[in-house]
Design goal:
There is one protein chain. This protein has 93 residues and is an alpha+beta fold. The chain has a single domain, classed as YefM-like fold (3-Layer(aba) Sandwich), CATH 3.40.1620.10. The chain is globular and about 35 Å long. It starts with a strand and ends with a helix. The relative contact order is 0.15.
Length: 93
């Protein structure tokens, strides 16, 4: 199950987030209804880095392009929209 929480939970419920991450599940954090970051275990992070087919420079270029597109658009997604999109994607819909 996807675990999406407000950023304030990082401080207020750290032990709960730590247990979730240690169990192998990432925690998605939001601020004002918008996704801001993902908390992963070191094992999950290492696995992502090893399986990435992009070089560090390519990853940086992709992130820069994402930042550029975000600045050009006024469209923002609510917490519920992000949650639903992630659920559909994970369920192959």
């Amino acid at each position: 199950m996807i675990d999406i929480r407000p950023e304030t939970d990082l401080m207020e419920n750290f032990d709960s987030i730590k247990r979730t991450v240690k169990s192998g599940n990432p925690v998605y954090l939001t601020e004002n209804g918008y996704g801001t970051m993902v908390v992963l275990s070191l094992e999950q992070y290492s696995s992502l880095m090893i399986s990435s087919s992009f070089t560090e420079d390519e990853e940086e270029a992709i992130l820069d392009e994402c930042d550029r597109r975000a600045k050009e658009s006024t469209r923002r997604y609510s917490h519920e929209q992000i949650s639903e999109k992630l659920r559909r994607s994970l369920n192959g819909e």
